[in-house]
Structure to design on (894 residues):
């Protein structure tokens, strides 16, 4: 016998078995419905691009993690490592075809050869939504509103979206004569939740001295209601300015829409990247703050700078699907299901496979997903298989189908959870019954 | 100024702009709903795998086309070039977790560094559905039924699914003492539609001599009704045998289900691959036979042979999404749309952005996707933008929203196609109106 190849996947890569894939797709469908409801449109870009396009002027952390190689035509290519760079290239390339402001979402795989510790994967799905070509408060507010609606639709439970403004922070640093060190300061502040107040103080003191370090830490620790916090931040930034005004406007918009409760102002939010220039935000689940932000982003000045001289401002956010799924699983917020089928047609006579499909078609046409079994094993074995597949109801056909269609039957429905058979029904009656239990509030636990 | 990078994609790769991506997603959603209705479950596998896994014993055409490289850890890896090999690895790896028969679908990108002529791409989406772990006629029939239902759901128009049986063909070759040359014969017959009768005759004559070549060509040209054709094929194969019986059984099943009309028996269908051992099938659109098969597949004996000693039989099919989209576009069967939004909220006062979102939320909650505009440009420009975005209706808010929610308004709806404003309505009335035009049969052209 020849040598078998051991079936295995690469480290950091995953198979999705049906229950996990159904969960992932259900979650994506929910957030996608929200994006579409706002008029956001989907796009897609190639997984593989010229390395020069993806890495730009290159260097840095990213480059080390990128899957990069020469293709058989000798081209220097790489797998995309995020959806932002391809979006910038896409916009520069198709600029004339995109009505501005352009609102798009993009849900797709990306690849990074990262360290695979701590639940990090080398292949994962990003879910980005951005509005470009407008630099107004209404665009900022819309992205924030979509975050709220999408997380609600996902069943994420109570959460808080924390907001800050990069410009305001820079103004504050200017009052300290420390704006030139903003990258280092942002990096230090970003570590607050991990290394604590003293750790950040120490880092900052090394850069700017004890006094300014203390000022910065007190600034980012400002707590309180939105108005109070904003007043303190405005004062620390040297008085009224356009960035503070933007936050005030946003506050008004969110209140007018009636969604202000989930938003807070938090001067400690910085979002590490240099990229952002306006508002920045992240989202913690109230019940699971430890897993980190499940939805983050901000406003940027110049999306396509590498590829075009037209400066396009935008605001965007990204849902961390893997984290969100982990959170939903931890909180029991998403019932796992192994199949979409609600009904299994038991095989009584293998010669009647065609009739069983005819019966199943009638249920499917009524929106009841129906799997047909092929082998005339004992009813008990077939019930067990249906249960193993996660199907709630079984149908035992006791008659045939009148030639030429019409009603088939009679049939017997078995409740596989209660392990109980019902009385003989016509197919029409069985459909009415299954619809009634589906609509009944008591059956929600089966959703 | 620094040097700009030219934004471009690799040859053979594509961006999907919103209209194309919406079309693709709509099509996928339609066929996916059919798969789910039959109890088929989705899975996913990594884009990148060990080259050894994907290429097996290697060699041949495939290997040349594969994107293969060493990752930064020195592993010999490759991008998947189909969904069949990863499925085989998946089944071998997770065998104990999969209830048999296992019915799965997998819709995902694959990569092949092929010649990019003739509309072939180096990155494309495959859409496979298979049932493994059962070798009965009912499983064959179910795959065929799903093909019919999925193509109907896709709006593919009239089509014919052509069926043959590899085993029966082999039996026929045995009567000619030519079974040992079946690969060459299959390859030649597969070219019938491209090189014509004489071309195939010449190829076959070179392999087997004029007389046997003539016999084979007459065999594959057998025309007529199912029963007549099957009788002729059975006789040519030396009389009754299990493969002919399978085709007879299948015929009965499809008739019992009431879907026999779209199926024909066609001895010329071979499906080039060695892989298939039972039924094989392909689908031509009646109106566009020239684009080739839009859905093809067959039964195979031993899916996981490279990775496991357990022989798993299965039957599966694959929808050619790119071809199907091309066909739908050619036949006008799929109306292009640029957005999911049905309504645009015109911006009258930029300070009221929060209220506009409040109004939009009410429409969204009623299932009417609503895009909010941010800038208080002239109404005419905003109407033009809405039209450019493919939105049918515009809403001009003339009032505000009562504090604390409830009804907002009044509003004016504008029919952007007819370029006509309606009378002032409450938000409730506007929702009722939009729902009524959506449900009206006359509005189907806007679907």
């Amino acid at each position: 016998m020849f040598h078998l190849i051991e079936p295995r996947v690469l480290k950091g890569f995953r198979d999705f078995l049906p229950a996990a894939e159904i969960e992932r797709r259900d979650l994506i469908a929910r957030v996608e419905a929200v994006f579409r409801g706002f008029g956001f449109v989907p796009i897609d870009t190639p997984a593989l691009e010229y390395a020069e396009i993806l890495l730009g002027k290159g260097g840095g952390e990213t480059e080390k993690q990128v899957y990069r190689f020469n293709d058989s035509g000798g081209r220097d290519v790489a797998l995309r490592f995020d959806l932002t760079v391809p979006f910038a290239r896409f916009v520069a390339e198709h600029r004339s075809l995109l009505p501005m402001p352009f609102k798009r979402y993009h849900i797709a795989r990306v690849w990074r050869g990262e360290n695979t510790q701590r639940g990090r994967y080398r292949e994962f799905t990003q879910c980005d939504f951005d509005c470009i070509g407008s630099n107004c408060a209404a665009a900022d507010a819309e992205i924030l509103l979509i975050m709220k609606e999408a997380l609600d639709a996902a069943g994420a439970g109570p959460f808080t979206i924390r907001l800050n403004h990069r410009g305001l922070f820079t103004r504050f640093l200017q009052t300290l004569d420390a704006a030139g060190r903003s990258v280092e300061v942002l990096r230090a502040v970003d570590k607050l939740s991990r290394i604590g107040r003293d750790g950040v103080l120490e880092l900052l003191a090394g850069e700017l001295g004890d006094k300014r370090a203390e000022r910065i830490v007190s600034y980012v620790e400002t707590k309180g209601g939105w108005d109070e916090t904003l007043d303190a931040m405005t004062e620390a930034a040297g008085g009224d300015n356009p960035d503070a005004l933007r936050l005030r406007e946003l506050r008004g918009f969110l209140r007018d829409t009636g969604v202000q409760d989930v938003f807070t102002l938090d001067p400690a939010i910085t979002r590490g990247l240099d990229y952002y220039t306006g508002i920045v935000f992240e989202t913690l689940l109230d019940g699971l703050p430890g897993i980190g932000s499940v939805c983050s982003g901000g406003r940027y000045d110049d999306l396509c700078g590498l590829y075009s001289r037209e400066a396009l401002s935008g605001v965007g956010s990204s849902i961390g699907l893997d984290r969100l799924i982990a959170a939903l699983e931890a909180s029991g917020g998403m019932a796992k299901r192994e199949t979409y089928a609600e009904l299994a047609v038991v095989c009584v006579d293998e010669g009647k496979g065609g009739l069983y499909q005819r019966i199943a078609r009638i249920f499917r046409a009524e929106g009841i997903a129906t799997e047909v079994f092929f082998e005339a094993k004992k009813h008990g074995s077939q019930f067990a298989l249906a249960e193993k597949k996660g199907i709630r109801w079984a149908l035992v056909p006791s008659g045939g189908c009148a030639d030429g269609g019409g009603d088939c039957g009679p049939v017997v429905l078995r409740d596989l959870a209660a392990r109980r058979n019902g009385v003989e029904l016509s197919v029409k009656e069985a459909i009415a019954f299954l619809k009634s239990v589906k609509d009944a509030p008591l059956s929600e636990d089966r959703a």
About this structure: Residues 343-438 of chain A form a domain with the Rossmann fold fold (CATH 3.40.50.800). Residues 222 and 232 of chain A are 8 Å apart (CA to CA). The two ends of chain A are 48 Å apart (CA to CA).
